[in-house]
Amino acid sequence: MSGKVPLHAVVAVAGPTGAGKSELALRVAEEFNGEVVNCDSLQIYRYFDIGTAKLTKAEMRGIPHHLIDIADPDQVFTAGDYARLGRAALADISGRGRLPVVAGGTGFYLSALFEGLFRGPERDPALRERLAARESRRPGSLHGLLARFDAAAAARIHRNDVPKVMRALEVRLIARRPVTELFREGRDALEGYRTLKLCLAPERDALYARVDERCRRMFESGLLDEVRGILDRGYSAGAKPFESHGYRQAVQMLRGELNAQEALFYAQRNTRNYAKRQMTWFRKGPEMEWLEGFGNEPRVQEAALARVRKFLTIC
RNA sequence: GGACGGGUGGCCGAGCGGUUAAUGGCAACAGGCUGUAAACCUGUCGCCCCUUGCGGGCUACGGAGGUUCGAAUCCUCCCCCGUCCA
């Protein structure tokens, strides 16, 4: 570090769905003159409100929120896009002398924002289409191809994980260099900031109970109507965000493939499974400051605010 | 009362005389993840023991008997469940 250039501060609030990230982030933003930057891969999308537990305008209590409703449902949005927009938001907020508070449960986006991605080519739809066709003709052939072009990558990516095999191949074909080699050149990490990463870690059973309850309320408060509305706007039920839990089941219900009870059951179950995966992701996260409990608990909020206060005095 | 069909590990569901602790799916638990990530993928999964290696022991397919070298698989009786005829 040069020591001359003052570093801006940024706080992140991570944790599994339903842990109360939004509430805690809001609290931190209110307390320290901050603005919230969304880091949820689905709140990015317009019209997907109820099922993504987006805060309403009123719930935001006047605190500016960024990177919410910035993409249409049929738009391809990647971690790279997120990292770019996220950094722009950070710069903008810091530039105005305010504190950016990143909030969200998409671990991959969080790492793309802070740790960065490797410097490689972006996705190439045409190439992918060709590769996908090949794979569907002969399942497993992509992994075989990768083994020839980039043995190291083939060794670390399971042959069944087609999306990752495809990305590795795509990189190799476009950059004409193995991904593993590009990885070694490091990531495009965020610079110029001091970061404090908080991660909510509620007790498992309590979290699951809350997730179940939350899912029920989503259906009760019009998730189905929301989905109908999105489809009425002309978006296909095959659009990416419809693949997510809750929305997937709502679509199936509209098609008559599930009844209300089943839809709720599967939505709850998949959300619980997701929460578990998030915890796995964050557990290994570097330099995480753990907060046991939910983000809306006064006790947890006090602990978080104290932590942030201390962090800001060092900055 | 009669005729069929069925009761399998937390659930669903194969197996129908022997390499079967028992295919598979789900759940559960653990984990991976460098541009679609709320996605995609992997491992474990009856109990106990030597942390040793495809190792050893025990308990398991509604219950009780029986046939057999050997049964979840065949026979008998009983108990449940479903459909149909009365």
Explain what you see.
There is one protein chain. The chain has 315 residues and is α/β, with parallel strands linked by helices. It is built from 13 helices and 6 strands. The chain has helices spanning 21-31, 79-95, 107-114, 125-137, 141-149, 151-156, 162-175, 179-184, 204-220, 223-232, 247-254, 260-283, 298-314, and strands spanning 8-14, 34-38, 65-66, 99-103, 193-201, 288-292. It has a 6-stranded parallel sheet, sandwiched between helices. Helix 1 packs across helix 13, helix 10 packs across helix 11 (247-254) and helix 11 runs antiparallel to helix 12. The chain is globular and about 55 Å long. 38% of the residues are buried. The structure holds one RNA strand of 86 nucleotides.
Tell the overall outline.
globular
Mean pLDDT: 95
Count of helical regions: 13
Q: Which ranges are low-confidence, i.e. pLDDT below 50, for 5 or more consecutive residues?
A: none
Using the CA coordinates, give the radius of gyration: 21 Å
Spatial strand order of the main sheet: 3-2-4-1-5-6
How large a portion of the residues is in β-strands, by DSSP E?
5-15%
